[in-house]
Specification:
Blueprint: H1 13-19, H2 37-48, E1 56-59, H3 62-65, E2 71-90, E3 101-119, H4 124-136, E4 145-152, E5 155-162, H5 176-185, E6 187-188, E7 191-192, H6 193-206, H7 212-227, H8 230-237
Antiparallel strand pairs: 1-3, 2-3, 2-4, 4-5, 6-7
Helix pairs in contact: 2-4, 5-7, 6-7
Length: 239
Amino acid sequence: MSDAGPSQLRLTDALVQRATRAVDGPRYRDEWHLLDDADLDKLADQLTRNRPLPVPIFAYGSLIWNPGFAVSASRRATAIGWHRQFSIALDHFRGTAEHPGLMLALASGGKCEGLILEVAPGTEQESLRAVLKRELVAHELAANARWIEVEVDGKRSEALTFYADPIDVPLTNLTVGDQARLLARANGAAGSGSEYLLRTAQGLEAAGIHDPYIWELQDLVAAEIESWPAEQVRTSSQH
């Protein structure tokens, strides 16, 4: 039985381009204290001490299409007891206070297909620095890494992942329709919400993974952008 969904994504690069504009917003919150290399190395040691190598990282969102660290192997896996959810409210990075965005997280319940990315042996320090700096950013977010149960090729094990039942971050509980409306309009210093969603959908598709939630969301975001009058698109692109 194939995991493939419908043959073509409705959300496209052309639609993302319509919805994306340059925004001079904050990448981080002013009150955050960013992690330096010493902090990252200490955190990496705490997270991986007495764990077998290579370090397995469960990717379910942007790490699928842009891991940003040396990967020696990639395998499909299922996170047991978790599902994807755009639940983290963003007023920075891919959003602003005026046009807030959403970040993908894992929420308790169900199951979630993604990829196990193995950190390339011999690159542990630089690779873990890179992924922890990107995912956790600041001391205020450092608790958002945890080991979860995964299933790979019918066998259970554990993998490191990020923002599973997030803590110390602003959370939302929106309908899929409201999520789509926010993501269609969200823009920030790091890009747009629609681009993030499209790249995630494309990454899942390339891995042979069909998530009905992501598929519905990209369809709704595409419909939202398609509904905008041309004048609205031209005006948005000028800001």
